[in-house]
Amino acid sequence: MNRIVRVLLLAGLAFWSLTVQAQSARLRAANKQFENLSYVSAVRAYEEFLRADKKKEPAETRDAMIKLGYSYRKLQDTRNAERVYGELIKSYTDLDSEVYLYYAQSLAANGKYRDSQKMYSQYGEKQGQDLRGRRFTVSYMDMSRFYQDSSSYRIYNLPINSRQADFSPMYYKNGLVFVSARDESGVVKRVFNWNQTPFLDLYFHPDTNQLRVPGSDLRAVSSSVLGGGSETKIDGPESAVEMKPLTKAEIFSRTLNTKYHEGPMTFTKDQNYIVFTRNNASKGKSGKSSDGVKKLKLYSSVNRNGKWVDIQEVPFNSNEYSVGHPAFSPDNTKMYFVSDMPGGYGGTDIYVVEFNNGQWGTPVNMGKEINTEGNEMFPFAAEGENLYFSSDGHEGLGGLDVFVAELKDGIAYKGVQNAGAPINSEKDDFGFITDRNRTTGYFSSNRKKGISDDDIYSFRRACKQLNILVFDAKTGSPLENADVRILRNGLNHDLRLTNVNGRTDLCVDSNTEYEFRAIKEGFAMNSIRFSTLTQSPRPVLNVSIYLERSENTVVKGVIKTEVNQQPATGVKVTLRNDKDKSEQTVMTGPDGGYEFAMKPNAPYTITAQKDRYATKKAQYGKTKRKSQVLTDSLGLYGVGDIFQLKNIYYDLNKFFIRADAARELDHVLGILKEYPQMQIELRSHTDARATDTYNIRLSENRARAAMDYLVSRGVPANRLIARGYGESEIINGCIDGVNCSENDHQQNRRTEFKIMAVQ
After folding, report:
1. DSSP letter string over 281-343?
2. d(Cα 234, Cα 449) in Å, to the nearest integer?
3. Which end of the chain is more exposed for a tag (fewer CB within 10 A), N or C?
4. Are 704 and 722 in contact (CB under 8 A)?
């Protein structure tokens, strides 16, 4: 396998030291290749030493076999790794526990799960800190859970794959950017010492429609694609290959690609900002860590006029450890990445860092729910708070498996779930990207039936349809336009509307607990539960909900964030009956929605709460009608949110509050009175005319004038911060030397407020 970007993250290795000083020339040569991370050469040298050198000391033989097994492991040659580790365990009893772990992993990667289970058990007995021994021993007792949803998937090998490694696809415009070791230049390319393969670059295919595979997913592989020989048949839908020639891919950017490795990347939603993985590009010794290895770093770049420019390192890079495999969250407020920095749980861990208007926060480890004693890599944040990643530390089918974690406030509150076969195999499966509901997407794998070592695959997941039918309990007639709230694993997820036949439907996921709540004016709310923890062979399933006539009132609405008016997920919404003090609570899902049934003749209070957001309350008096639906939406103000006061402008070189500005500040005054614990920063900006020093002073005076206005209206000064930014944050390109109209300049003479605390 040619996944150097993954391998380099693990390059900080602990090497075994030889206990015997007198070494043969062959052994010295092998050890030198091993220490230089030249594993192809090391394998040859160790095999030659073990085969030819007859005067070997037992300790020399033992250590040579350990290093040979490790070299095969790093080259992803699991067959030979299994052979060497098997010979070691038969011949020696004084082995480190890691040998048993590596043997167990090699056996699993070769599909020998029972034998692997025994080795994991022995590994667990030899040490007590690493829980993988115990977890994998139990997991391999029953493999069925990895295959529960396998019949729903169809997998296709893509025509963009080459004879070299191709992996880590990422959506870009209408196509895919991916990593490849192919050599499209026609000239001799430098090779990487690790396994004598070309360095990695970023490539682009502009149209995913050309990658779609029509018709059956059981096809023959062209010999021209495989590189010679007769036509080869693929015997199984999980590894189907399209019957057409290799599709040409183009260099993504000659600016971003260098003579070293460029690896997995991520884009912001507007696709004008990229963060990508690259070897430490510093020249000479300064580019290496203290152990002599060029670590991986993350770099950013901006697209201007079709060209990637302003390549910069992210501030949390280091020469002493690697950072790589970036993945922006769908809203661009945070980025996930992988690192072996000190303080982690295992080899490589997944971290998250806040990203706000181009500014980076401090990286935070994702915690033990995500990270293990093994290696977690290749994160991808899908719409809907799902984080996908690959791991060899969580229980899987062998090698790296794809896992998914549902996040709530950044925490994998229900642990992680194996994506199962055929997405996962006994080999390495990684670089997974998909849509919100995991119906289509792409991933990488070095499974047996690919074209090369790492190939990119597409997948489609067939819908397991569930029909939800809503009826009038008395008449049995279907109820049209009834709301059906879908809850997944106890959380609000989606809201559907029944059709004229009283029906709505959805594609259900495996291993999920559902609840469906039906709501309609004039009827009492009712619900039914449904589980997919066990699979039904039927392609279409039905559940029915019957509603009784009632005089209850229904209140429903959507929680949104005030800063961008987007639905807020993970908000605890409580409806309190102020008469009998009873309460109902729901947690919002991706649509931010909530629904409650209210008893008549009682006042109610709705409260919306979420960490780092100001608590919002809305009160309802006694309803006049006995049966009705009340609709409302609530907005939340969050810490760090920045709001531009669009009508606060200043005359040139002035800092007095104009009448139009006073009206806008009165709006801020109302917010501060509603949330008495809120603290804000008043941020004032100037246009680019005049000197920097003058503009800083002018903007500080303007911010102070806005603060003084609010203080004069009764806001305590300790709740306000006034700060001037001068011309440092121009919003429309009207910088020094650019001719702009007076109206354009006035847009930069503005004041914003930023929420600093809500308590």
Report:
1. ---GGGGS-TTS---EEEEEEEEETTEEEEEEE-TT--SSS-EEEEEE-TTSSEEEEEE--TT
2. 7
3. C
4. yes
CB atoms within 10 A of CB 169: 28
| Closest C-alpha to 688, from 643, 747, 647, 646 | 747
Please enumerate in sequence order all residues whose Cβ is within 8 A of that of 334, keeping only pairs 6 or more positions apart, or say none.
328, 352, 353, 354, 355, 410
Checking if the pLDDT of 16 tops 70, the result is: no
The predicted-structure confidence for 587-641, as pLDDT tens digits, reads as follows 998 889 999 988 878 899 999 999 999 999 998 887 666 666 778 889 999 999 9
DSSP string of 543-572, one letter each residue:
EEEEE-B---EEEEEEEEETTT-PBPPS-E
| pLDDT above 70: percentage of residues in the chain | 84
> Which of 406, 383, 419 lies closest to 487, judged by CA?
406
What average pLDDT does this structure show over 720-726? 94
Query: Would you say the pTM of this structure is higher than 0.90?
Result: no
Is residue 750 within 8 Å of residue 644, measured between CB atoms? yes
Cβ neighbours for 268, distance < 8 A, ≥ 6 positions apart: 274, 328, 332
pLDDT in tens, 335-370: 999 999 999 998 999 999 999 888 999 999 999 999
Rounded Cα distance between 37 and 292, Å, is: 11
Instruction: Tell me the C-alpha distance between 406 and 382, whole Å.
Output: 10
Cis upstream peptide for 237 (omega within 30°): no
Q: Quote the DSSP letter at residue 629.
A: E
DSSP label of 151: G
Tokens 């990487």 belong to residue = 192
Q: How many percent of the chain have pLDDT more than 90?
A: 55
Query: Using 50, 70 and 90 to split pLDDT, how confident is the model at 475?
Result: very high
